Amino acid sequence: MPILLILALAGFNATVAETEAPYLYVLGVAQDAGYPQAGCYQQHCMPGWTDPRLERGATAVALVDPKASKTYLFEATPHLPRQLYQLEQQAAGYTLSGVFLTHAHIGHYAGLMFFGHESMGASNVPVFAMPRMTDYLRSNGPWSQLVAYNNIVLQPLAHNKTETFASVGVTPFLVPHRDEFSETVGYSIRGPDKTAVFIPDINKWSIWDRDIAEVIKAVDYALLDATFFGAGELPGRDMSEIPHPLVTETMAALAHLGPEQRKKIWFIHMNHTNPLLNPQSNEALLVRTAGYNIAAESTRLDL
Which of 48, 89, 102, 141 is 20 to 30 A off residue 159, Cα-Cα? Predict the structure, then answer.
């Protein structure tokens, strides 16, 4: 996996934003626990342990608005310190003006702890979340302490209601997932010229009340759940209990789309077992040959 080193380092060599147009900037692409995963000493994880520069952070995407000198995060991951550094390298001196959360699985909100007084001691960082997620953060420690100390300010969201920031609109929409502590949303992100959807976690496409192919046709970029590449990826585990759409299933469901539609898709949120984390793997070659993209740190998508 030597090319992973290049990808991992790419985020730290980016130049400060040079355009006035807003854009998305990928800060992490792995499943909640990152790569390599804690307790994994199998062959696929060992390169990450022997060379820490190959580590991949949990999925996070930044919205960068150069005209307003502001940034927004989608997800607060356990790798937040490194990802904030990546973002500072990309947009030095910009104000972090909000964090959008999708749901209450640990890789998507645990990074909020770094805003607390034991770490950054942040002041009034807006955290946008759906009603159940908002109640969860307000009612359970240690997150409630962040609210009490005004490290964060909770900003409730509503399904299909757009939040507008200068030239950018952000709209949450409910998706089916394992909702033990909160609901789960994806986001539509609309810029002056282009639109993206961000769906890092969802159950099978077939149980959603929307047609994923039609969603893709309506946008310019689709960052989609790619937790597992194929069946049998977790030996000894019942994968029906973690029913993400397999990459092979997503590709099959979208095979009827033409090349112009397929190239909108960026697979993201890859488990440590997913061979797409290795850009040189046969599976990664298959995905790219079929006309799809695999998100990597420092991927930039202009809006």
Answer: 141
- Cis ω before 172 (30° cut-off from 0): no
* 285: DSSP letter: H
Closest to 112 measured CA to CA, from 154, 86, 78, 156: 78
Return the ∠ at Cα 277 (arms to 275 and 279), rounded to 5°.
Answer: 90
Rounded to a whole number of angstroms, the CA Rg of the chain reads 18
Cβ 55 vs Cβ 48: under 8 Å: yes
CATH fold of 3-302: Metallo-beta-lactamase; Chain A (3.60.15)
pLDDT digits (tens, 9 = 90+) for 79-125: 999 999 999 999 999 999 999 999 999 999 999 999 999 999 999 99
pLDDT tens, position by position, 33-46: 999 999 999 999 99
Q: Where are the domains of the chain?
A: 3-302
Q: What is the spatial distance between Cα 256 and Cα 214, in angstroms, rounded to a whole number?
A: 12
Q: Residue 8: is its pLDDT beyond 90?
A: no
Tens of pLDDT, residue by residue over 209-232, are: 999 999 999 999 999 999 999 877
